[in-house]
Amino acid sequence: MQRQYIPVNYRWASFWWFVAQYLFIYLGSLFVIICLSFFLLGSWDYISSVYGFILSVPDLTPNIGLFWYFFAEMFEHFRLFFLCVFQINVFFYTIPLSIKLSKEHPVFLMFMQLAVMSIFKSYPTVGDMALYLSLLPLWSHLHRFLRNIFLVTCVLIACSALFPVLWHLWIYAGSANSNFYYAITLLFNVAQILLVSDYFYAFLRREHHLTYGLYLKKKDGSEATLIHTEDINTMRRVMGAAPDELASTVTRPEPNPDGLG
Questions:
Q1: Is residue 113 a contact partner of residue 120, using CB atoms and an 8 Å limit?
Q2: Which ranges does the record mark as transmembrane (predicted)?
Q3: How far apart, in whole angstroms, are the C-alpha atoms of residue 82 and residue 62?
Q4: Residues 158, 164, 168, CA angle at the centre, nearest 5°?
Q5: Among 47, 122, 194, 260, which residue's CB has the most CB atoms within a 10 Å radius?
Q6: What would the pLDDT profile of 155-190 be if each residue is shown by its tens digit?
């Protein structure tokens, strides 16, 4: 199954109009929420208690995030710099993901944004992770393109089991320290990053196959097949032929488009 595209000339005017529309909707909604909160509480103090608390990270209580241990060990005069570096991760991936996915795949863009926010937010919870994991069945057709799903699943299960164990050893038994707990936290977040990047890779690979087909093509337009270098060298020794000649004689396997529809 191969997707056919009709050439379209994109106009920058329509793009900026699209950006302006949604920016206006976002800012207008935010303004309404802030004004309603002010009328409800009668003070602007809630801004520093809600938005300022999330951005400045004053509470370093241990959690499953990346912030608490790093900022607890950091020199105070470096705090502002690394605070900006850490917080920008939540917004840094928005623009490239939106450019790539917003036009044709807004639901997958929403999934990627939820996952990125869950990983890099200052005070993450298990509920944040459960939210984007609950959406994975929507992309069950990507399973055949995933590369590290077994490894990531095992790591996530192991970390979920070790979190309460190391917490008990650190806080209650006193036989462990914060390094043990934060090591599992790092591994847990690395596994989430691998999971999200693996799904993004699988999504892009499926899109590539839908556009260009399952197989590569040579310069003359005929279909080409990738074979291992060792196979070429072995066949060359046996047959005395050049690698380019051998590559053109390899039989192409039957197509298997399962999962591409």
A1: no
A2: 12-40, 46-71, 78-95, 107-133, 145-167, 179-201
A3: 18
A4: 135
A5: 122
A6: 999 999 999 999 999 999 888 888 999 999 999 999
- pTM to 2 decimals? 0.73
In a domain, 202, yes or no: yes
Clarify whether residues 103 and 70 are in a common domain: yes
CA 131 to chain centre: 14
Question: What span, in angstroms and rounded, lies between the C-alpha atoms of 84 and 108?
Answer: 27
Are 232 and 181 within one domain?
no
Q: How far is CA 71 from the centre of its chain?
A: 24
Q: How many Cβ atoms sit within 10 Å of the Cβ of residue 26?
A: 10
136 CB-side CA count, 13 A: 17
What residues make up the domain containing 241? Answer: 216-249
> What does the alpha-carbon distance between residue 261 and residue 259 come to, in Å, rounded to a whole number?
6
Taking the CA atoms of 106, 108, 114 and 116 in sequence, report the sign of the dihedral they define: negative
Q: pLDDT digits over 75-106, tens only? A: 888 999 999 999 988 888 888 898 888 788 98
Alpha carbon distance 248, 116 (integer Å):
44
In a shared domain, residues 96 and 176? yes
